[in-house]
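STRUCTURE REQUEST FORM
Protein name: NrdH-redoxin
Source organism: Halarcobacter anaerophilus
Requested output: structure tokens
Priority: standard
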Amino acid sequence: MKQVALFTLPKCKWCNEAKAYLKAKKIKFNLIDLSTNKKALNDCKKHGCSGAPVVLIENQWICGFDKNKINKALGIK
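Status: completed
Returned output:
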């Protein structure tokens, strides 16, 4: 199974949508709070992501909650 990390912010509607989506698809993921982890925030910015959520699948950065990109990266429908 591919390594998945979900970078979120508190009270972020799309972050909660992404979290629920990954759980519904039974995808295990590491949850990282960008409001408390400045290194993770800088990593996201370095890869061109300016908001949350950010999904990291192996070495592919997905800015925002984009189901199609997430599914393609995970090889699911």
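Reviewer notes: The two ends are 15 Å apart (CA to CA). The chain has a mean pLDDT of 96.
Form closed.
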